[in-house]
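Hello again,

I reread your note about wanting to compare the complex against the isolated chains. To keep things tidy I'm splitting this into two emails, and this first one only covers the full assembly. Below are the input lines as submitted, including protein chains and any nucleic acid or small-molecule components. They are followed by the predicted structure of everything together. The single-chain runs will come separately.
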Amino acid sequence: MTRDECTEAVLAAKLAKGLSWQQIADAVGRHVVWTTAALLGQASMDDAEATKAAEILGLGREVVQALQHCPTKGSIGEIVPTDPLIYRFYEVMQVYGSTLKEVIHEQFGDGIMSAIDFTMDVERVPDPGGDRVKVTMEGKFLPYKKW
Amino acid sequence: MTRDECTEAVLAAKLAKGLSWQQIADAVGRHVVWTTAALLGQASMDDAEATKAAEILGLGREVVQALQHCPTKGSIGEIVPTDPLIYRFYEVMQVYGSTLKEVIHEQFGDGIMSAIDFTMDVERVPDPGGDRVKVTMEGKFLPYKKW
Amino acid sequence: MTRDECTEAVLAAKLAKGLSWQQIADAVGRHVVWTTAALLGQASMDDAEATKAAEILGLGREVVQALQHCPTKGSIGEIVPTDPLIYRFYEVMQVYGSTLKEVIHEQFGDGIMSAIDFTMDVERVPDPGGDRVKVTMEGKFLPYKKW
Amino acid sequence: MTRDECTEAVLAAKLAKGLSWQQIADAVGRHVVWTTAALLGQASMDDAEATKAAEILGLGREVVQALQHCPTKGSIGEIVPTDPLIYRFYEVMQVYGSTLKEVIHEQFGDGIMSAIDFTMDVERVPDPGGDRVKVTMEGKFLPYKKW
Amino acid sequence: MTRDECTEAVLAAKLAKGLSWQQIADAVGRHVVWTTAALLGQASMDDAEATKAAEILGLGREVVQALQHCPTKGSIGEIVPTDPLIYRFYEVMQVYGSTLKEVIHEQFGDGIMSAIDFTMDVERVPDPGGDRVKVTMEGKFLPYKKW
Amino acid sequence: MTRDECTEAVLAAKLAKGLSWQQIADAVGRHVVWTTAALLGQASMDDAEATKAAEILGLGREVVQALQHCPTKGSIGEIVPTDPLIYRFYEVMQVYGSTLKEVIHEQFGDGIMSAIDFTMDVERVPDPGGDRVKVTMEGKFLPYKKW
Amino acid sequence: MTRDECTEAVLAAKLAKGLSWQQIADAVGRHVVWTTAALLGQASMDDAEATKAAEILGLGREVVQALQHCPTKGSIGEIVPTDPLIYRFYEVMQVYGSTLKEVIHEQFGDGIMSAIDFTMDVERVPDPGGDRVKVTMEGKFLPYKKW
Amino acid sequence: MTRDECTEAVLAAKLAKGLSWQQIADAVGRHVVWTTAALLGQASMDDAEATKAAEILGLGREVVQALQHCPTKGSIGEIVPTDPLIYRFYEVMQVYGSTLKEVIHEQFGDGIMSAIDFTMDVERVPDPGGDRVKVTMEGKFLPYKKW
Amino acid sequence: MTRDECTEAVLAAKLAKGLSWQQIADAVGRHVVWTTAALLGQASMDDAEATKAAEILGLGREVVQALQHCPTKGSIGEIVPTDPLIYRFYEVMQVYGSTLKEVIHEQFGDGIMSAIDFTMDVERVPDPGGDRVKVTMEGKFLPYKKW
Amino acid sequence: MTRDECTEAVLAAKLAKGLSWQQIADAVGRHVVWTTAALLGQASMDDAEATKAAEILGLGREVVQALQHCPTKGSIGEIVPTDPLIYRFYEVMQVYGSTLKEVIHEQFGDGIMSAIDFTMDVERVPDPGGDRVKVTMEGKFLPYKKW
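Full-complex prediction:
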């Protein structure tokens, strides 16, 4: 079973069982964002996590095994995404990229925000003018090493 | 004075005066992220904001005028950014794009997070294992209209 | 059933039954443009709409379910379309893009026309010199938020 | 004077004189969308139009001459635009391209909407939920010739 | 039967029956260039034409139906073609594109040669120095509309 | 004087003298298409031709010399042209490329139409339904050599 | 049998029979470079050549027929090749392209080396410092035609 | 003096003095292909070579110095060249790339032809059917190392 | 069996048998980096190596044969890799490419580091601040040949 | 003084003074690879380092200031480099990318080699068969964080 076949099996089982990502995450014992990423082939689970995920989805050992593989990451198959929801994150990077660079360097010096030692959260913020999506990214600051 | 010449003038004056983005933002009375974006040609100021920005930077009416123009946005001049700090945001979109899509749709239904009715913050989170960069994006959820 | 398989099933059933998009839209109770977009995998239906669409097409529960999924949008699979009908809309954007930017900013200030809170109509305008295609796009103006 | 230098001269004069596109269009006696396109180097004026445009802008014969040249069209200098206002029109083409193809073919048969025998209008539609941008494109239907 | 499957069926039948494009065109009653384009999925036939084409190729109703569909056009699947015969037409556009622009504008004013209200012919011109390929393209001149 | 500077000088002189490409071609004693191509930097003149061209344009020895240089060809600076007039020739190649391949191979066997041993003509064909642009390309057929 | 299926059949038969390209070329009576190109779908054989090739490979009439088809050429499926052996030829074109242009124009005038009326040879040149690959390309010089 | 300025100076001096590449190569004491490549910024000369080149061109010490710099190579500024002479070498790589791979591997095993330990020659081969361009590339075979 | 099918068979067998790349490399008698590259279709084995690899993986003669084929190299199927581990090597090339050029030329003169006569090692370097990945690349210096 | 102007000033001064990168690095007190990267605009110096660098190069305060700026990184201005020395590192990533992924994951688990907490060395390894370039990259292993 390849990682792509595993993702398809997960999506089909989730639909058939009527599960939400949140329910699966609760069963796995991890945050919904990370759990979804892992099940979509963008992170690797350990044996206990994979076993719990397969269990709630009613899937077998092959899936348990595949979920522990370090996947080749990159979830959208396009250089510039066409899906409007995903594109908005590309747009943020295009419009605010130089700003993020200036502000992070001002606060931290030369270096980057890690996308590996990194967590992300998605929250719904109630608002009378229309609820808002709040995405929080937090990554370790990695200063450039000199040698 | 074109918007690009304005940006160059701002950067030169900021360097010459030894100002931080935070100091300029305080003078303008806006958040440092938005102020930086506006000065880098990614947002437009009103007359009062532009006047205060020009004042602290010691720049003239031409700059005040240019800062009120609606700029052609897109700050990085490349489809995939090569600068490592900016690239990490591209990487987040590549790796977590499908996850953001699934989780936001699960919480909100079909629609997107606006990148226009949108705010962003950058904070330094102290951490014994190394301080962390926390980037918070918050945009209004826009449900797809049916007709 | 993936969303692509669903689209193929819809197209095959439409052809076999000799239905027009307008007839399907009437059965669904929605505008023909939106209904066509939804059936081509660019919008999501609710249960009632999907049930009516499946009914007139003679398709089953799997299709009803798939039509309610939030699809990954982007209908043409190319960065610059080669089909001449679709290309003309790319050309309008290339030739008149800067004009739309100037005129919309002049009328509304800094911001955009939403492509989400958005409707579109296609009409045939009789004309002795040859009938004309009238495409009306209407989207909410979203002013850039300052913070 | 090249066409690009002409565009720069027009923009500088418009800013210096504090003119709106609508005022210039009124002076020229043409629609604001077409007039703006022509002044931005996407359409060519005749001598009378160019003379009136130059007059209100306070520009000379060189501009009058340049505005009559058939320009090399394409206003955005990028394959996929990064400016959010212009990108939304790219997004409409990406998301609704196959829909436009189906609906126009259903109404008209095989052919295209001309982008040459074409007019466009931009209107502000008042709306209690937020005013809306209405863009109307109207082009002659051109049926594919057989031979 | 999709349009691509239809094209494959046509090519296989043509090869099996040993027919030339000219023979099929004669049976259809159309020019060989147009007939070939239609059979390769770049134009749509009416019922009578499709019936005659299917008849001489020994194919059934599904093909007759598919040949009447308005196809998604674009025959080469590459942005810059690698096949040398097709590339030469790309080269002509690259090398002589600005010349065609100047000469057509000089003769006709601002506008284009239509590629829709358009015919094309290919002829063999005997020549002692080696026979020559003569490709004649004729399209209606479409002047840019002003409004 | 580089070839690009030469082209600019030619265009400025042509405009200043109010000459048409046809008039310059008559002075040079060559076809208007070839003459235009040569003056736009896509072909090289001999000394006599360059001298006559420079004479009617009122330009000096540097231009005469530059016009004899073998230029680096490619007139449009883009992979897919955005100018609508030039794009239509790209569209013809995209839509009819596979047809040209089939029909030319049927008439000539394996090989290509030369774009070097090649001539092109542009004519205005009067037509009550609107005059037509007739572009005739004629190139030597080059059969693939076997060895 | 498509041309691609034919190429696969040839490669499988060659491997199964343990034949070299040279042995097949000897059977066909053509140079090994041309024979290999033809069998890889980059040139077309006549009936006698195809019959001999199919015979030594133990393949049937379908292959004989397919090998006579004028193939859509382009053997590498990438714009810039990633295979190091093939890339070196891309590198030669990148590094020495302007040199080839200057030197060929100096020796021959304005024109090109034909890649159609063209032969190529690959030889092993013994050398004490390591044997060398000698690739000889020879193409007819085609002078640009004037008209 | 940058390497690009050096190249421009060389080209201007060559034109002004009416020198051929062959004459300069003779003065330098190197092959015309290598000398041209070096002067066009694709190879580096030693002091003696650079001095002789500068001398015949009538250029100074700055040029002598610049010609000894290891240049950033890549002479055509485009991924796929548009100039027809240079494109033919791209076409050879596209059409015959897989053939070169098969034939060189058959003769030498796994490895490549070096483009560094490499020489190239261009010759004019008289031919009653039209003289031919003969390009000979010879590079050391580099076998893949195992470890 | 194609090379891609061979790679899939190897990966499936490795997973099923629970083997590490190191264990397979030990069986083959080669370095783990080279062995992995060869099994992933980026290098070719000799008969003895392929036999040992197939043996430990429990695979048959077809695999032994396929592993001896010179593969078409290029392991990532993207121009810019999206997988973060692989991307970091692209980033090193982007950020330090000009530095490598300067430093290698300073130490060696004009030429390159061979990627063919080349070995690579990956080691784990224990470090109290977090273990480090050490990648050592060693390639023969190839000086540019003059002629 | 922009960062690009600073780089140009550094290169000109280095050439004029006949300094090697090693000599400048010794003056700065840093490794030659890091020092070169910093001077080429790919890393930022502190005040002491910048002062020492400017001093040995004979440059002023503006350079000292510019060298402390966090530069926008990316040194080669192309997606796929054309310079052969730099390209070989792209080739290593293309050919050995999947191998590096497998081997590093086998030794370390899911994560990456940091390109920020990273050092690089270039050494000359004497070898009777030709000296070798040894490039050592060492980056902290960053395990993917779960949450």
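For quick reference: Residues 34 and 43 of chain C are 8 Å apart (CA to CA).

B.
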